[in-house]
Design goal:
Distance between the termini: 39 Å
CATH superfamily of the largest domain: Aldolase class I
Largest sheet: 8 strands, parallel, barrel
Order of helices and strands: EHEEHEHEHHEHEHEHEHHHHHHE
Number of domains: 2
CATH architecture of the largest domain: Alpha-Beta Barrel
Strand content: 5-15%
Helix content: 40-55%
Number of strands: 10
């Protein structure tokens, strides 16, 4: 079983990737999307979203990170993929699944699923632009308003030379509402020529039992997990048969998370960023609910610091973010999409 950590715009960023991969069980991460319009982005645009590129493309726990690009211009995406490959990451991923209205209105993400031919041209252009040893993957939903073109899109991606395809088992219209339609992933996978491209299942995996059912239904030997891992940092371990993670082991991860947030996020946003993760942890841990209730109206970082110190979980030495010492790294903006970067015309 191969487990991938999903990208989650505005939540599962470099900070949380670092912390969750420390928990164990994750084999690879995919970053939040880097938006590509009509420019070749400067190096700092990639490093802002994927600072792990300054660490050989690995999180501090040694888990590889694959950067994800989002856009609709095949030539421009190819040029940016070439620049990204030159930074030494672990492949290039393409976003055909984002359901956000603002992204779709800009002709990015899931809206492209109504244009299988364009998706194929994008993947082919990126495949040609990067060295043969650099993996190219894509993530898609089953469709935009319906799933009628799911097979067409998957075949276009496979024929264009992609190595892997993650399928989120819902359409854009479904959003994130349960259920996930795992049986459609199985149908799409079975429609592809054997051995052409690895298919990875994604959607509604909250427990080891869910993972087992998803694997049985889809026939996939690799899964991508997102919200389930954010809510339960021990989920990947449980899926791998290595036990779960009690709250007593989550607390030290919260402390590391807080130390990194304190080094990367503006002071006025730090408490909110901390509570954002606590809010997700409530789904799995009753102790997180109690902590969230206690800190719900807190916006003072010193209060959060005191809360952690009271539980004796703060590291003796602050944990710096990945590559924070380099001048090329710029602190992230909290809970927002990456800012637009101005570079050379494609």
């Amino acid at each position: 079983m191969t487990l991938l950590l999903a990208p989650m715009e505005g939540l599962l960023d470099a900070t949380l990737r670092d912390v969750l991969t420390r928990a164990g069980g994750i084999d690879r991460c995919v970053s939040e999307f880097i938006r590509v319009t009509d420019t070749v982005l400067p190096e700092r645009a990639f490093l802002r979203v994927v600072p792990e590129l300054l660490n050989g493309g690995f999180t501090r726990a040694g888990v590889p990170v694959r950067a994800q690009l989002l856009g609709s211009d095949p030539a421009c995406l190819a040029d940016n993929a070439a620049r990204l490959a030159g930074l030494g990451g672990h492949g290039v991923d393409l976003n055909f699944g984002c359901p956000a209205k603002t992204v779709n209105q800009s002709r990015g993400g899931a809206v492209l699923l109504d244009e299988p031919e364009l998706i194929g041209r994008i993947v082919a252009a990126v495949r040609r632009a990067v060295p043969a040893h650099v993996p190219v993957s894509a993530k898609m939903r089953l469709g935009f308003n319906d799933d009628q073109r799911a097979e067409d899109n998957a075949h276009a991606i496979a024929q264009a030379g992609a190595d892997e395809l993650v399928i989120h088992a819902r359409t854009k219209a479904h959003g994130y509402r349960p259920p996930a339609y795992w049986e459609r992933i199985a149908q799409v996978r079975q429609s592809l020529p054997a051995g052409r491209m690895r298919v990875i299942a994604n959607g509604e995996i909250w427990s080891a039992a869910d993972a087992a059912r998803c694997r049985a239904v889809t026939g996939c030997d690799a899964l991508m997990i997102g919200r389930g891992m954010v809510s339960d940092p021990g989920l990947a371990l449980a899926i791998q048969g290595l036990g779960g993670m009690p709250w007593s082991q989550v607390l030290p991860l919260l402390a590391v998370f807080w130390q990194q947030v304190s080094g990367r996020v503006e002071r006025r946003h730090r408490a909110g960023r901390f509570k954002q993760w606590l809010n997700h942890l409530r789904k799995r841990h009753p102790e997180a609910q109690a902590a969230f209730d206690e800190l719900r109206v807190c916006n003072d970082p010193q209060h959060v610091q005191a809360w952690l110190m009271h539980r004796a979980v703060l590291p003796a030495t602050p944990v710096a973010p990945v590559a924070a010492a380099t001048r090329r790294f710029r602190p992230e903006k909290p809970i927002t999409s990456p800012a637009a970067e101005i570079g050379q015309p494609c």
